[in-house]
């Protein structure tokens, strides 16, 4: 029988992000999936409490962290992958590989142009780019990287044993699906990616990248890391009874009126660098661009 991993689930409440430490119970090799840096935009301050908790989880269980797996270049939080890689290295662990899907190059091209990021700051941002259906392992646990485009063009899911870490491809049944209006996003591709997940065996656990539990009294629930394929097939409000055409029309109309994520400018500039900050200026500070829309009469 195939070996199943141990899955540790850690919720980051400010950005409602689920982070995961996944390990082989025998060999103790581990991956950390979608780790978050704590960012307070009003104070222009980044701290590492959430990332340190992931490191503590891995080290206290005796794991060797082999990989830092990004499902995609997130638009709503800053990645802690580089911080965790460097911290674990300084504590005597091997150099964990920061990994993402090969279509990150599409996102990097767009973002580096928009925010004037020098080529040399993104060229080696990631240690490994996954192709679709690429097989890898954590100890004795078999893993497959699944290309799941739609939310973003680079989006991957990671199938680890009988679990799939789906990022923002599919949210829980009462929330449905993620937006598709980031550069290269595509509602039709998202629908097909969701259908691909729903073709997996019904007992497969689908771990989400975010949960936004409703808080009103009649529907309140706790943030939940996963539901099964079977539960999604029966209850996902955006796909259970929808055709591809109807979903695409609804998703595009919805995305047109969605506000942009609060941290999108900072997140994109850090995340296409694999979690590294922009190079320090001659002041010894790291600067990011913040783009604003202004009346044309104010532009000189
Ligand atoms: Fe996302």
Descriptive report:
The protein has 300 residues and is an alpha/beta fold. The chain has a single domain (6-298), classed as Metallo-beta-lactamase, Chain A, CATH 3.60.15. The protein has helices at 49-60, 81-90, 104-114, 187-198, 229-235, 244-256, 264-271, and strands spanning 6-12, 17-23, 29-33, 36-40, 45-47, 64-69, 78-79, 97-101, 128-130, 134-138, 141-147, 156-160, 163-165, 205-207, 226-228. A hairpin with a 5-residue loop joins β2 (17-23) and β3. α4 crosses α6 (244-256). The termini are far apart. Bound molecules: fe (ii) ion.
Task: Please tag this protein with its features.
300 residues, alpha/beta, Metallo-beta-lactamase, Chain A, six-stranded mixed sheet, 23% strand, globular, binds fe (ii) ion
Reading off the top of the CATH hierarchy, the class is best stated as Alpha Beta
For this structure, the CATH topology is Metallo-beta-lactamase, Chain A
> Whole-Å distance between the termini?
68 Å
β-strand amount: 15-25%
Query: Largest beta sheet, briefly?
Result: 6 strands, mixed
Give the H and E element order: EEEEEHEEHEHEEEEEHEEHHH
Number of helices: 7
Q: How are the elements arranged and paired?
A:
Elements: E1 6-12, E2 17-23, E3 29-33, E4 36-40, E5 45-47, H1 49-60, E6 64-69, E7 78-79, H2 81-90, E8 97-101, H3 104-114, E9 128-130, E10 134-138, E11 141-147, E12 156-160, E13 163-165, H4 187-198, E14 205-207, E15 226-228, H5 229-235, H6 244-256, H7 264-271
Parallel strand pairs: 3-6, 6-8, 8-9, 13-14
Antiparallel strand pairs: 1-2, 2-3, 4-5, 4-7, 10-11, 11-12, 12-13, 14-15
């Amino acid at each position: 029988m195939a070996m199943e991993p141990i899955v540790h689930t850690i919720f980051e409440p400010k950005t409602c992000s689920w982070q995961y430490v996944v390990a082989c119970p025998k060999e103790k090799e581990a991956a950390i999936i979608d780790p978050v840096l704590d960012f307070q935009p009003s104070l222009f301050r980044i701290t590492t409490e959430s990332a340190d908790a992931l490191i503590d989880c891995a080290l206290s269980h005796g794991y060797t962290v082999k990989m830092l797996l990004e499902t995609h270049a997130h638009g709503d939080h800053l990645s802690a992958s580089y911080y965790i890689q460097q911290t674990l290295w300084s504590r005597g662990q091997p150099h964990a590989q920061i990994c993402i899907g090969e279509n990150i190059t599409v996102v990097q091209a767009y973002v580096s142009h928009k925010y004037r990021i020098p080529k040399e700051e993104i060229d080696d941002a990631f240690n490994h780019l996954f192709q679709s259906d690429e097989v890898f392992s954590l100890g004795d646990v078999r893993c497959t990287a699944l290309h799941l485009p739609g939310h973003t063009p680079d989006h991957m899911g990671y199938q680890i044993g009988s679990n799939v870490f789906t990022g923002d491809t599919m949210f829980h049944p009462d929330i449905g699906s993620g937006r598709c209006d980031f550069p290269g996003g595509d509602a039709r591709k998202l629908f097909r990616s969701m259908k691909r997940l729903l073709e997996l065996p019904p007992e497969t656990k689908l771990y989400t990248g975010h949960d936004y539990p409703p808080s009103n009294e009649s529907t309140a629930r706790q943030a939940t890391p996963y539901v099964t394929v079977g539960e999604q097939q029966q209850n996902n409000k955006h796909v259970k009874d929808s055709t591809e055409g109807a979903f695409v029309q609804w998703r595009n109309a919805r995305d047109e009126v969605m506000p942009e994520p609060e941290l999108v400018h900072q997140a994109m500039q850090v995340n296409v660098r694999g979690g590294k900050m922009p190079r320090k200026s001659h002041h010894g500070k790291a600067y990011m661009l913040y783009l604003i829309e202004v009346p044309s009469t104010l532009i000189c």
